[in-house]
Amino acid sequence: MQNEPSDAVERRSVVPVVCYPDDTLPAPDMALYERVRRAARKVDEVRVPPREARTFEVPAGGFFRISSIEGSQVGDLNLHNLHDLSERFYSGKTRALHGTHVTTGDRLWSSFPTLRPMATVTEDTLDWYGIDGFGGSVHDVIGTRCDPYTNTLLSGGDYHHCCHSNLVRALADHMEAPLHEAEALVHDVLNVFMCTGFTRDTGQYFMKASPVRPGDYIEFFAEMDLLGNLSACPGGDCSAEHSSDAAACFPLLVEVFESPVEALGSWERPAPNGYDRSHGRGEG
Predict the structure, then answer these.
(1) Bridge partner list, 41
(2) Distance CA 118, CA 116 (A)
(3) How much is the pTM?
(4) pLDDT tens, N- to C-terminus, the chain (284 residues)
(5) Which of 105, 191, 86, 94 is nearest to 146 (CA)?
(6) Do residues 165 and 147 make contact, with C-beta atoms less than 8 angstroms apart?
(7) Which of 78, 113, 114, 108 is nearest to 93 (CA)?
(8) What angle do CA 161, 139, 187 make, to 5 degrees?
(9) Quick check: 188 and 91 in contact, CB under 8 A?
(10) How many angstroms separate the CA atoms of 116 and 121, rounded?
């Protein structure tokens, strides 16, 4: 540890500045989404078993809802453009634009080079939780997903029902492709219902018992045709551990709703990002 410089207090007292002010982001039309939702009809549902993952498809302009149905359970969500799986949810940029946790009115953004909204949160029954005294909140975009590589690094053992492996198996089944091809497309997740934050003293990522209860849900408007992939985390409510068979785990339910074309009115699918991709060399 180095000795503090004479102006240490002054340096620490500098007022922070938000990196990406969001007042110039295109705002979602929540009133439109509410009207469209009333006209939407359920067309599919997928039950995600404990310690497994399942894929589902959502049409552009439709909605999907993830619900707790039997017990407190968190889920790890991947999203892809249904027609181009390389365009996928970008948790890091979503975090930079909206914060460490998302709720109603926030959007899930896609990866470069498209960087556009993939889905918009339209309802969240846990939006009352806010930020607790530990700095914890719900639905985080800071955790990466539990995975067998970190598990082996920390414990020395192989565990195959981490969310990463669950997502790989489910995507491989959807693609009818080898595991290694699917694994290259699995990405950092939205930790649905997970309550997390950073410790104040060491800045370490923490988890605590999720406040989710049966009947709670989070719902999204699909800004494009989506392929979803959801894992019911082996940590259950993540109150103590993950990547094991010890925690009590429960299924999650995904419901898909299709919207009538006439109800969507003037809504349009978001266009790809307008950057010319020249990167200063005129080769875009």
Answers:
(1) 258
(2) 6
(3) 0.96
(4) 899 999 999 999 999 999 999 889 989 999 999 999 999 999 999 999 999 999 999 999 999 999 999 999 999 999 999 999 999 999 999 999 999 999 999 999 999 999 999 999 999 999 999 999 999 999 999 999 999 999 999 988 899 999 999 999 999 999 999 999 999 999 999 999 999 999 999 999 999 999 999 999 999 999 999 999 999 999 999 999 888 899 999 999 999 999 999 999 999 999 999 999 999 998 75
(5) 191
(6) yes
(7) 108
(8) 50
(9) yes
(10) 14
Domain annotation covers residue 11: no
**Residue 281 falls inside a structural domain:** no
> For the chain, what is the domain count?
1
- Per DSSP, the three-state class of 44 is strand
Are residues 174 and 186 in contact, defined by beta-carbon separation less than 8 angstroms? Answer: no
Task: Count CA atoms closer than 13 A to 214's CA, side-chain side.
Answer: 6
Task: Indicate the helix (H) or strand (E) that contains 227.
Answer: strand 226-232
Strand 41-48 relative to strand 252-258, pairing: antiparallel
Instruction: With respect to residue 64, please indicate whether it lies within any of the assigned structural domains.
Output: yes
Omega prior to 113 cis, within 30 of 0: yes
Contact 65, 254 (CB under 8 A): yes
The residue segments making up the domain with residue 84 are 32-261
- Containing H/E element for 195? strand 190-198
Beta carbons within 8 Å of 48's beta carbon, 6+ residues apart: 54, 75, 230, 231, 232, 251, 252, 253, 254
Closest CA to 21 of 89, 92, 90, 99: 99
Question: Could you tell me if residue 284 is inside a domain?
Answer: no
Q: What is the mean pLDDT of the chain?
A: 96
C-alpha distances in angstroms, 216 versus 8, 49, 119, 146, 213? 47, 17, 19, 23, 6
